[in-house]
Design brief:
Blueprint: H1 2-11, H2 27-32, E1 36-37, H3 40-47, E2 64-67, E3 83-86, E4 92-98, E5 110-114, E6 119-123, E7 140-147, E8 152-156, E9 159-163, E10 167-170, E11 176-179, H4 187-190, E12 194-201, E13 208-210, H5 215-218, E14 227-235, E15 251-253, E16 256-258, E17 262-265, E18 272-274, E19 281-283, E20 286-288, E21 290-295, E22 308-313, E23 330-341, E24 354-359, E25 366-367, H6 376-388
Parallel strand pairs: 1-4, 2-3, 6-9, 13-14, 22-24
Antiparallel strand pairs: 2-8, 4-5, 4-7, 5-6, 7-12, 8-9, 10-11, 14-21, 14-23, 15-16, 17-18, 17-21, 19-20, 21-22, 23-24, 23-25
Length: about 425
Amino acid sequence: MAVLVGALAAGCYNDFDTPAPRKIYSDTDMTALGLEHVTIKEVKDYFGPISGTGTNYDWETTQTVKFGDLTPEEQDKSKFPGLRGWPAAANYYIRGKVISSDRQGNIYKSLHIYDGTAAIELKLYNGLYLDYYLDLNTMESQWVYVRLDGLYLGNYRMMLSIGDAPSDSNNAGGKHRFYANSNLDNPNIAKLSVFPGDRVKLEESDILDVDASNYQTALGEQALGRLVRFNNIKVRYAGVPNQDQVVNPVMKNGGFDSSFPTWVVTDSGSPQNAPWYYWAYNINNVRLYGSVLISYNDATTYLSDPGVYSVRTSGYSQFAMKPIPKDGAVGTVLGIYAIYSRESSFTGGSSDQAQYQISVSRLEDLDFKAEDLLTEAEADELARWAYKNGYADYDPFNPPVKNDPMGGMEGGE
């Protein structure tokens, strides 16, 4: 750590009147720190299979790998039974291209990187777009280097990420939750482990293209965390009225009904669903996420089956109150591919409580024809019609909920 701090001080010296440019790091700098490169895939492979590990009910079912040696307290299995060390990783670093941005407010305190072998989420701080560059119009990105020593590789509901130590707390609904790692919220601390590199082009191979012909083979565990382009995919309302006020069959998450489009009350103790026809909810300082179902698989009624995905959008995003596409509209969606699961083994069906989710960086990545979007009047009328006809327990324009400061980005948790 002393060597690293010294190198950073030498590389980042600033004079108040003549500020120096921010240092750009390279493999040479990592070698000078005595570090060895490993791929993101090697890091994820060390964790092992993620199928069946997505419970996070307690510390026993919360799986974490620390890069480096465990402290004496961390070695106490009565306190952290799901934590193990990887001593050799204290000398490793990974690098990857930036594939997500929080500029439009939909992705929160997360930076996703991809190195050609796999992708991973870095759990950091807010305003990451100011430090790590991505322009999906020009396909210009930036290399990011991560010194692994002292960080934690954690699994939350089958999604792996790299961050700070495990943590537990009460969520907005007052329920206790366990997290395999936490955010490096302090930028000054985070920048001792995460370094900006040169600008770089995103190649076509850096984006995984899927369509109706290949989604079943392309979107396995190895694709989680990647930037995926879903081509010619259909919006599918389920369990709620479409623009013609026809109610499509409900989708199920395990044995539970899930209606889409939906907004979810995340601070009421138990999540509640109500039809909502904007990308997310932001009225009178109440901000709730939205879920819009898109699908290649019209036959299934289970969210865990291949070909069914939910676009998750934060109430804090700049495009929260933009109307969604009409039922049956076909377009292209570009976003980070993820899963939110309790016990999934990628089998799907009635016993599998899982949702495959997409987080987009920009409104522009929800590419549908203008004529296929609901107008604001149509979106409002559908929400009011659903309430009046018993599809919601309360009026979505006057919801009996408090403000959720976190934006409800994790499946109602």
